[in-house]
Amino acid sequence: MIGKTLTTVQGRVSGHLAKDHVAEIAKYHRLQASPGFLAAAQYCQQRLEEFGLPAEVLGYPAREGILYWGWPMFQEWEASEAVLHLIEPEESASKLADYNEARLSLIQRSAPFRGEAEVVLLEDGEEWAEYEGLDLNGKVVLTKGDRDRVHYLAVKKHGAVGIITDALKELPGLRHPMDLPDALQYTSFWWYGGEKKCFGFVLSPKAGARLRALIKERQREGKPPVKVRASVTSRFWDGQISTVSALIPGQTEEEVVLLAHLCHPQGAANDNASGSAAVLEVARTLQSLISEGTLAQPRRGIRFLLVPEMFGFAAYLANNEHLIPRMVAALNLDMVGEDQTLCGSTMTIEQAPASLANFADDLVVRLVEETSSRAANFAGLEGQAASRHAVTPFSGGSDHCLLIDPTIGVPCPMINQWPDKFYHTSTDTLEKVDPSQLARVSSIAATYAYFLANAGPEEATWLAEEVLSRHKTRVLTLTRDGVTRAAGTDHPPREVETLVQRVQFLEERTARALESIRRLADVDVSPWQEEAREFGEGELARIEKLVPPSPANPPADDWEKQAASIILRRLHPGPIDPKNFINRMSDEEYEAWWSVYKQSPDATYAYPAMLLYWADGSRNVQQISDLIELEVGKRVTEMLVTCCRIWERLGLVELSTGS
Fold it and tell me: Rounded distance, CA 199 to CA 190, Å?
């Protein structure tokens, strides 16, 4: 069903041509809403037109006060010069950072500044207690702490004029900051309106350690403080945020969408010049095969989008809502070119949350498996895969999170390489990009797009069988692991009850995934839905004989009681990231948000989005928390209630009282 197209595509795709595009795109300092991004967009537009595709760069207003669905916009920005010098003590005088030598040495979107200032050392700078007795007025802080939190406490609340950060995010098991002692962390301010703007510089872990040691030494010896001279020439203006769009026309108005975010600082290769380059290579490959007649013109169009991550895609969708009903499916390519040996990465297929269970996830997994090269064992027989891949649950944080919102309803898996040792640092460079990975992902994406662009009843039937067979595998894995947990716990009845609920939840998810196949063709999916239900019930009947379920529910705490009383009504399509609205929060709201955010910062990309995805105007927040727990195995009721309260006060959602 997919083999012939895949073989044809693989014979034409070139990972080396794709890597050439990575090299060119990485030359641009391509922040969202910036002249550098526009230049990169124009480069991609020109390449697409050379391939024979009409392409355009679409611009949307970038200024404070605009809301594209749930995403606030900001002004366009650029810097022409930024230098930080250590000037006291004189014997240690040196240049610490220079934007024109290393773009990441400046905190992006820094405000203009020229002057001298004392440097005050903070360890993290994330809690009020660390500021007791400190006079920061007119001074600069050196910190490893969260950028937004330090800005709030040091700049907004205590009068600091700037921030120097030597933070480099740890990736447990893969990257400790001192594993990359000379790397600079990609760091950016986000100004949406009303903030106290400031400047900031980035030091490597090694340079930061030297400066920290110098400050502490002078403090111990009672010597005058360390001082720096900072010069930042930058500007903000009401401008535009741009998107590249090109289309292989189909015979109908329906479309399959391939997208990647084009943004990130100069030099950034895998993130995400690699995804953008793969989109270009897919466009070249399909257009050439179709124009020469090797592949027929597709029934549905295939659209290629290169966007500024999240904000730019929200702007595109909000200004083109009439196109959304035409989109039958999409695929997001984000960091896809990693040399796995160097980067320590694994190709991941991130699936949609259960609120938009769909056929596309399983299709991508099948294509990844079909393209997995195999290393022979000692006897010359096929053995383990020569490269790593894994299927992962939804985590958000990239453009697919907009399309898979049930209010939008476009199936959109993401192919990614994670974790990456060099992620968001100055060491994400061209030599970390593997042409073979680019070729593989381009082949997967091209086959995915062309298959779905032509899918009819026959392809829909094959997909239904694929979804059903993978459902059975998931049920077997779930029940096997559940029995193991029940055997090793003092409370097996509760473990079994949880297992029953999760299998039933999986049955419902698969029923929705099968129903989504009707987007491709008008086929009766009920036989597959019934078989999926019967298979799950058969497994549960077998498991329940081991330990009869009789759980005792734990007493509800205050957060659970609040959650049970809240019903959320959405006012905007798309997810809402609470971090984007810190400037509009009261001090009390921000402290409440910080208390839940700091427990698991990366999780805040996923759970607030999932809260909105499940909100249908009738479920209360406790019921939504139950659904999220069934899906991810973690309960985050406090975070959900906190988001609801803040969003309501900001006018982003409406809350009513539930039973």
Answer: 12
Q: What angle do CA 425, 229, 582 make, to 5 degrees?
A: 55
Which CATH class, in words, describes the domain spanning 76-237? alpha beta
Going from N- to C-terminal start, the domains of the chain cover: 3-73+239-454, 76-237, 457-544, 558-657
CATH class of the domain whose range is 3-73+239-454 = alpha beta
3-73+239-454 and 76-237 agree in CATH topology:
no
> In 3-state terms, what secondary structure has residue 603?
helix
Burial of 280 (0-12, 13-18, 19+ CB in 10 A): buried
Conformational region of residue 128, where left means phi above 0, alpha means psi within -120 to 50, and beta covers everything else: alpha
CA distance 342 to 180: 13
C-alpha count within 13 angstroms, C-beta hemisphere, residue 589: 17
Query: Poorest-confidence range of 124-128, 191-195, 380-384, 516-520?
Result: 380-384
Dihedral pair phi/psi, residue 632, rounded to 5°: -110, -10
The amino acid at 501: Q
Whether residue 384 is predicted with pLDDT greater than 70 in this model: the reply is no
What number of other Cβ atoms are within 10 A of residue 546's Cβ?
11
Distance CA 409, CA 170 (A): 35
Residue at token pair 């380059």: 277
Those residues whose C-beta lies under 8 Å from the C-beta of residue 340, and which sit 6 or more positions away, are: 346, 347, 387, 388, 417, 434, 437
pLDDT in tens, 453-504: 999 999 999 999 999 999 999 999 998 887 777 776 665 666 777 888 999 9
- Please give the model's pTM, rounded to 2 decimal places: 0.96
User: By 3-state DSSP, what share of the chain in percent is helix, strand and coil, each rounded to 5?
Assistant: 45, 20, 35
Chain mean position to CA 87: 40
Q: Which of 282-286, 372-376, 437-441, 500-504 has the lowest mean pLDDT?
A: 372-376
Query: Could you tell me which of 527, 464, 534 has the C-alpha nearest to residue 503?
Result: 534
Convert 221-255 into a string of H (helix), E (strand) and C (coil). Answer: CCCCCCEEEEEEEEEEECEEEEEEEEEECCCCCCE
